[in-house]
């Protein structure tokens, strides 16, 4: 799924937009989500769904996977708000916390949609280029780059080890899972060390930073209309408080 995200970052219909504008748009909407109420958050959530699927052309299956992944991490946190466990072993539901849990869920999903918009419509090297032009510390940008590269090293190592495990026995026993995790850690660490040495030999992040921008931004009238409508709805929701 990670490689699919990265592929759509290069092939989406908003690829021609400048990375700075997409980053600014996502940041402004994220600020609205964090400071606004549930009305603004629902508007941003719906607007991001349009910009990601309707405007950028990202398939619903991929957008759904991203939102399900966010829900999988969000659900355990929300359960701690609405479920109470007391001694002796007794589980009860706290109805007074249901509204708070719903508000946190909407806020979190809306914030994740803003971040996902920036990630799925802009290649990561261009985002790193924006961070460098914002004069962030070079060490921080290089750390982000290494983490981005490490994700692909981890995915590749996991796929290779899983394929080898299935080819041998199928890995039905729990000990096979423990062995797979240990081998994954060792293989990933070795790959990371090799990549770090090769990166240092080439001079570090400055030699591999990608600064190319798309030739020309083309904004469709329907996107302009959608932006105006979204701004008006946010203004009305903000006035109603």
From TrEMBL:
Transmembrane is among the record's keywords: yes
GO CC terms in record: ATP-binding cassette (ABC) transporter complex
UniProt entry keywords in alphabetical sequence: Membrane, Transmembrane, Transmembrane helix
Topology in the lipid bilayer: Multi-pass membrane protein
Protein's GO biological process: cobalt ion transport
Subcellular localization(s) per the UniProt record: Membrane
Taxonomic classification: Bacteria, Bacillati, Bacillota, Bacilli, Bacillales
Residues annotated as transmembrane: 21-38, 66-89, 101-122, 222-238
Pfam families: CbiQ
Organism from which the protein derives: Geobacillus thermopakistaniensis (strain MAS1)
Name of protein: Cobalt ABC transporter permease
